[in-house]
């Protein structure tokens, strides 16, 4: 691999997709990604009543499956999906995990079926329905729609404003920015990890870290796998399949949005190589695997994409390393509990920067492609996507819900297809 091979290499990256870091650097860079995704990945099972170690295990295995399916060409991490939470909570209450597991498998199989269809008939339609004027605002929405989550993590304690929490978040943000801007060499690749460590130390000093779970945790703890057909008498749960399978079409739009961001960061077109069918296949098989071992469905994580944007370390080896650590730590109770003890303001402070990085890359797409906002068409498409997505608009029909990101993507695609290139008042006589 040479620097002159611009088709396969992004010279702006410190480590490009196929670049392999030294062993010592690999360890630290991978742990940085592990810390970044850990909070969200274990939060989902906690909200629905599952074992967090199972979610950690399934996310690591799912990420490795994704890397295998995409021929190790796409740097992405797959963690627990938030899109299914409401439905999974209902299924857990009425039927228990067996129903959730079948729903996760059904959702994953929807991905697999769509991937097979795209493999057969191609994905050229992606460029037609997702031009820069649609992609840019969608990427902005992906970043800014998470702003409320970052703010709540940074400021709230038990749903109440807490100045101590906010101070820790601002300190974490400040030191991360300083590390990112003023450090050189290897240290410039790990500003997120350094920021988390410094924020954690301050959180310990001000007394907002709870070590009780660390003290109670065992060094070795086997995750409570709930493999289908082993821990209970198998039976079908049609309600789970019917309610969770359609949500896969919603998460697909978010999946494609994340691939768009990665395209921009790495200066590649992953829709064509290795192909959209491979990215969907990897995502789908990851959820199928999660359903079999007892975890929630998985999806690609914006937090880790934010780390890629900030550090310019795009190596798939680093993401694979994070996946391996997730699997290992799922068996080490003390380490899992220690990472889980990182308080929310530390994660919130980091998120201010990470989610903003994602949104900024959406603006770069518009600028780099010289989208003409003197045309009313472009203004209309961008305006609708931004307000629908950032405003938190959603459509709910029973247990089926279109999130703001999915709904804004749908509106953008429709407007792009139906609006003329020029308004009547802009046409030349």
Describe this entry's structure for a reader:
Belongs to the nucleobase:cation symporter-2 (NCS2) (TC 2.A.40) family. This is Uracil permease. The chain crosses the membrane at residues 26-48, 98-118, 130-151, 163-183, 190-216, 236-262, 316-339, 345-367, 379-395, 401-419. InterPro entries: NCS2 (IPR006043), Xan_ur_permease (IPR006042). It is a multi-pass membrane protein. The protein is mainly α. The protein has one domain. 66% of the residues lie in helices and 4% in strands. The protein has helices at residues 23-48, 52-69, 85-94, 97-121, 125-129, 132-144, 147-155, 163-182, 191-205, 212-216, 238-244, 247-266, 271-293, 302-311, 316-329, 333-340, 344-368, 376-390, 404-418; strands spanning 78-80, 156-157, 160-161, 298-300, 395-397, 400-402. The strands form 3 sheets. It has a two-stranded antiparallel sheet. Strands 2-3 form a two-stranded antiparallel ribbon. Strand 5 (395-397) and strand 6 (400-402) form a beta hairpin. It is globular, with a radius of gyration of 21 Å.
Largest sheet: 2 strands, antiparallel
Task: Figure out the total of helices.
Answer: 19
Q: Classify the helix fraction into a percent range.
A: 55-70%
What amount of the residues lies in strands? under 5%
Q: How far apart are the termini?
A: 54 Å
Structural class: mainly alpha
Principal-axis shape equals globular
Average predicted local confidence, pLDDT: 82
Low-pLDDT runs:
1-7
Biggest sheet: strand arrangement: 1-4
Q: Give the total of beta strands.
A: 6
| Overall tally of structural domains | 1
Secondary-structure element string? HHEHHHHHEEHHHHHHEHHHHHEEH
Q: Output the radius of gyration.
A: 21 Å
GO molecular function: xanthine transmembrane transporter activity
Organism: Ligilactobacillus agilis DSM 20509
Subcellular location: Membrane
Transmembrane segments: 26-48, 98-118, 130-151, 163-183, 190-216, 236-262, 316-339, 345-367, 379-395, 401-419
């Amino acid at each position: 691999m040479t620097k002159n091979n611009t088709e396969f290499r992004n010279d702006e990256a410190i480590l490009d997709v196929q670049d392999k870091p030294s062993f010592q650097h690999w360890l630290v860079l991978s742990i940085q990604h592990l810390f970044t995704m850990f909070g969200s990945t274990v939060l989902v099972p906690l909200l629905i009543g599952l074992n967090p170690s199972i979610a950690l295990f399934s996310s690591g295995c799912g990420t490795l499956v994704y890397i295998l399916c995409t021929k190790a060409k796409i740097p992405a991490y797959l963690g627990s999906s938030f899109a299914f939470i409401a439905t999974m909570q209902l299924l857990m209450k009425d039927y228990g995990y067996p129903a959730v597991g079948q729903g996760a498998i059904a959702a994953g199989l929807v991905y697999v079926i769509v991937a097979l269809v795209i493999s057969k008939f191609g994905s050229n339609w992606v460029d037609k329905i997702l031009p820069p004027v649609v992609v840019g605002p969608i990427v902005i929405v992906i970043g800014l729609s998470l702003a409320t989550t970052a703010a709540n993590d940074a400021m709230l304690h038990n749903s109440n404003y807490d100045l101590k929490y906010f101070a820790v978040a601002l300190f974490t943000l400040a030191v991360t920015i300083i590390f990112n801007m003023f450090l050189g060499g290897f240290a410039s690749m790990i500003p997120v990890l350094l920021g988390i460590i410094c924020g954690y130390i301050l959180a310990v000093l001000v007394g907002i870290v709870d070590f009780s779970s660390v003290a109670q945790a065992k060094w070795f703890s086997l995750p409570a796998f709930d493999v289908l057909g082993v821990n209970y008498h198998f039976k079908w749960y049609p309600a789970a399949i019917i309610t969770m399978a359609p949500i896969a079409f919603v998460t697909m739009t978010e999946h494609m949005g994340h691939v768009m961001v990665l395209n921009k960061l790495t200066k590649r077109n992953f829709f064509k190589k290795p192909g959209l069918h491979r990215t969907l296949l990897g995502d789908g098989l990851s959820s199928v695997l999660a359903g079999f071992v007892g975890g929630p469905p998985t999806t690609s994580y914006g937090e880790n994409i934010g780390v890629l944007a900030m550090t310019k370390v795009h190596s798939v080896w680093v993401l694979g390393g994070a996946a391996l650590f997730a699997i290992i730590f799922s068996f080490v109770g003390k380490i899992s509990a220690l990472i889980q003890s990182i308080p929310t303001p530390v994660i919130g402070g980091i998120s201010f920067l990470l989610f903003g990085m994602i949104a900024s890359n959406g603006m770069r797409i518009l600028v780099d492609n010289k989208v003409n906002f003197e045309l009313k068409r472009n203004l209309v498409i961008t305006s609708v996507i931004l307000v629908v997505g950032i405003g938190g608009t959603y459509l709910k029909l029973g247990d089926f819900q279109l999130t703001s990101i999915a709904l804004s993507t749908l509106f953008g695609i429709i407007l792009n297809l139906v609006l003329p290139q020029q308004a009547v008042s802009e046409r030349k006589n």
